[in-house]
Write a structure and sequence with these properties.
This is Tail specific protease domain-containing protein. InterPro entries: ClpP/crotonase-like_dom_sf, S41A_metabolite_peptidase. Keywords: Signal. The protein is of the alpha+beta class and about 625 residues long. The chain is about 30% helix and about 20% strand. It is built from 17 helices and 29 strands. The strands form ten sheets. It has a seven-stranded mixed beta sheet with strand order 14-15-16-17-24-25-29, covered by helices on one side. Strands 1-11-3 form a three-stranded antiparallel beta sheet. α12 runs parallel beside α13 and α14 (about 430-440) packs across α16 (about 560-570). The chain binds 2-acetamido-2-deoxy-beta-D-glucopyranose (8 copies). One 2-acetamido-2-deoxy-beta-D-glucopyranose binds next to α3.
Length: about 625
């Protein structure tokens, strides 16, 4: 009787109001893989909110004042024209567009910044970047009988199977045999010639790299080091960070067949966010601002940078496909002699010819001192084993600490070479000038800020004193007819953080630097230094036939995450200034490229806009696209 009454009371609201609207987020809670339409239903269940739009757009408009390349976008120089955008006009359009849901607004902003193609300058709304859509048919661009073509990756079965039965059961229960597609020749995608569709994805999905040719390579599946492990990237066609597509139509010729078939391949979305149970907890977990969203006043927090005397500058892209990195299938992991110093982001080998050493640099991230000792350990072993030639592989190196790129350059070229970096500036906007003035008045230094002058050196190599004002007066500069004043020009002071002794002269014969062009930020600065200062041979694999491709992807100088910039503003005590961006009310990150590295070829051109093509270009083959050792042996 009691239980019956309780049940009646519980049911009462339902009886009065009819069935409650189903919660589309509850329907997918606790699942690793969900159909993209179900993920999208959850994401689209939050109505558009004008307060949030004004908050995010005001934040972005004021952060853009710090973005060093803003004025270049008005008319991006060749071969980078594809990125041209009137940033202020686009912000005004988004301010007046009618949106139905918060998703529609947020994704419009996400797509806009993605298509600026500057991996340092992107809006990540964490609410809507928490899924990776996965197609069980990643594509590659390989040469067969002398001609490049688009194929479903021949190793798809070994590769995709690693996602586990939660992924593969979905296709089995739908009766979709994805395994038979492995290695198929693709003849049409969504009604377009395969390379035309690849260009479309490079233009609309990939982002990160100013150069279109480099983005073409991001569309395909490729080998990489993720964190400290060999991995295979799914590629942007088969692994985008959005859930708009539910399936992809291809016409293809399966292996051992001569008949063209039409297939409609389903996507399945992989959830990368924090646990939730329903719509409200999905918002709390992924969408609402949290303690890490905005910056802090470091004067108040007793902060010491990573237990170091100074903060460390970074330059890296955010590749969401790192969150659930899938391993490189074991048969394709190098099996030749491993060299010392290979437990971190660097994997070094001696090829079976016993003459060639290889350093595969997965990134410049992770253990700052460990990276330096790993470089030294590998090179010492190459010397001991009388290695006569060394090649560096920078494939899919997304960057990292600015000073680790300069360390590697300095170590390879010797201390006699002198300054190992670029001439640099930041933007002298009025708020930046107020920050530096306030830092000086407060007596701050590089232990708490990136803005104080002791982060830099004069061009003669002397470190600037922290009280030096290098940004006011500013230096005039004009881009696309707009005044765009900068700070004084300065050098980095990376040698202060080198923890390994540098040889005076080059320790070995560096033959060449190779990659797929997806070499971002610190990696792009390093490879540009090797080209501009040493004329080192650069080699790039892949790219669309007939289209050019740069050897560097995205050559910004230093990135500030939104929280980093906000920390500079709060620590300087200028958060109340009308030019200061407001704290974000949502969980998101509007990062930006904060410094420019100027080319040695033309001191008025940022290296980002200096077209630098590889010395040599080769095609991937079925043997090399996922097999680093086979590629190095070929090279
Ligand atoms: C499969 O997904 C369930 C939740 O839906 C999870 O509990 C389980 O650990 C997953 N299995 C694997 C092998 O990942
Ligand atoms: C819009 O968002 C703000 C800030 O999170 C919140 O206070 C407000 O309640 C929201 N408005 C509606 C109608 O949900
Ligand atoms: C958006 O437009 C409204 C109306 O013109 C204006 O008041 C507001 O300041 C604009 N918001 C931003 C972020 O520019
Ligand atoms: C790469 O393939 C294209 C055809 O797609 C061919 O013209 C070119 O010569 C090949 N490059 C090399 C280095 O073999
Ligand atoms: C294709 O044919 C070859 C030779 O008959 C065979 O070894 C191979 O297993 C076949 N591959 C597939 C996917 O059917
Ligand atoms: C380097 O230049 C600065 C600024 O002009 C100057 O103060 C300093 O004395 C110079 N240092 C040397 C070693 O010449
Ligand atoms: C750079 O090296 C290439 C050969 O790899 C050579 O043709 C070229 O002249 C060199 N350029 C300079 C400036 O030394
Ligand atoms: C080692 O890897 C290479 C390249 O993938 C391959 O050709 C060779 O057969 C492998 N050797 C052994 C012993 O597995």
């Amino acid at each position: 009787m009691h239980a019956f009454l309780t049940l009646c009371v519980a049911l009462l609201p339902l009886l009065v109001a009819g069935a409650p609207p189903a919660d589309p987020c509850a329907a997918i809670a606790g699942k690793t893989f969900v159909p993209p339409a179900d993920a999208l239903a959850c994401e689209k269940s939050f109505p558009f909110n004008e307060t949030l739009r004004q908050n995010v757009l005001t934040n972005m408009a004021r952060v853009f004042d710090f973005f060093t390349f803003e004025e270049y976008y008005l008319n991006s120089p060749p071969p980078f024209q594809e990125s041209t955008d009137n940033i202020r006009a686009t912000l005004a359009r988004i301010n007046t567009t009618v949106y139905k849901t918060d998703y529609d607004f947020s994704i419009d902003l996400y797509d806009f910044t993605t298509q600026l193609n500057d991996g340092h300058t992107r809006w990540f709304p964490n609410c809507y970047t928490s899924f990776q859509n996965i197609l069980p048919a990643p594509v590659v661009n390989i040469e067969v009988n002398g001609v490049q073509g688009v194929f479903v990756a021949p190793d798809s079965v070994e590769f995709i199977t690693q996602l586990g039965t939660n992924f593969t059961d979905f296709f089995d229960s739908a009766g979709f045999d994805w395994k038979r597609l492995a290695g198929a020749r693709v003849v049409e995608i969504e009604g377009q010639a395969p390379f035309d569709y690849v260009d479309f994805i490079a233009k609309t999905v990939s982002g990160n790299y100013l150069d279109h040719g480099v983005r073409v390579n991001s569309v395909f599946s490729s080998y990489r080091i993720s964190n400290t492990d060999f991995s295979q990237r799914i590629g942007d066609l088969a692994g985008p960070t959005d859930v708009k597509q539910t399936s992809l139509k291809m016409k293809l010729i399966p292996v051992n067949s001569t008949t063209v078939e039409s297939v409609d391949i389903p996507f399945l979305a992989n959830y990368l966010g924090l646990p939730f149970t329903d719509q409200a907890s999905f918002w709390e977990a992924n969408c609402a601002a949290n303690d890490a969203t905005n910056g802090v006043d470091l004067k108040a927090s007793g902060f010491r940078a990573q237990n170091r005397p100074r903060k460390l500058a970074t330059a890296h892209i955010i590749d969401k496909s790192q969150s659930n990195a899938i391993g490189l299938p074991p048969p394709f992991i190098p099996n030749t002699t491993t060299v010392a110093g290979s437990t971190g982001v660097i994997k070094s080998f001696i090829l079976p010819d016993k003459k060639t050493g290889v350093m595969f640099l997965g990134s410049f991230e992770g253990d700052f001192d460990g990276f330096q000792s790993d470089v030294v350990a590998a090179i010492k072993q190459f010397q001991t084993e009388k290695i006569t030639q060394v090649l560096l592989d920078l494939t899919n190196n997304g960057g990292g600490f600015v000073c680790l790129g300069q360390f590697l350059h300095q170590y390879l070229s010797g201390s006699n070479f002198g300054y190992p970096g670029f001439v640099s500036t930041n933007r002298a906007n009025p708020l930046a000038q107020k920050i530096v003035a306030a830092d000086i008045a407060l007596g701050l230094d590089d232990s708490l800020t990136f803005y104080t002058a002791d982060n830099w050196a004069f061009l003669n190599g002397t470190q600037m004193p922290p009280s030096f004002n290098y940004i006011n007066p500013s230096s005039p500069f004009v881009v696309n007819g707009r005044q765009d004043p900068t700070s004084q020009r300065f050098h980095d002071t990376c040698e202060l953080s080198f923890t390994q002794p540098i040889p005076r002269t080059p320790p070995l014969d560096l033959r060449f630097v190779l990659s797929n062009g997806n070499c971002a930020s610190t990696c792009a600065m390093f490879s540009t230094l090797m080209n501009e200062r040493h004329n080192t041979t650069t080699v790039v694999f892949g790219g669309r036939p007939g289209e050019s491709i740069q050897f560097k992807g995205m050559a910004g100088n230093q990135v500030l995450e939104w929280a980093d910039l906000d920390t500079e503003i709060k620590t300087a005590g200028v958060k109340d200034d009308p030019l200061a961006p407001p704290d974000l009310l949502v969980s998101g990150n509007f990062r930006h490229n904060w410094r420019t590295a100027w080319s040695f070829f033309d001191e008025n051109t940022p290296i980002a806009y200096e077209s630098e093509l590889p010395t040599l270009r080769f095609n991937y083959t079925a043997e090399t696209y996922n097999n680093p050792q086979a590629l190095w042996t070929f090279a």
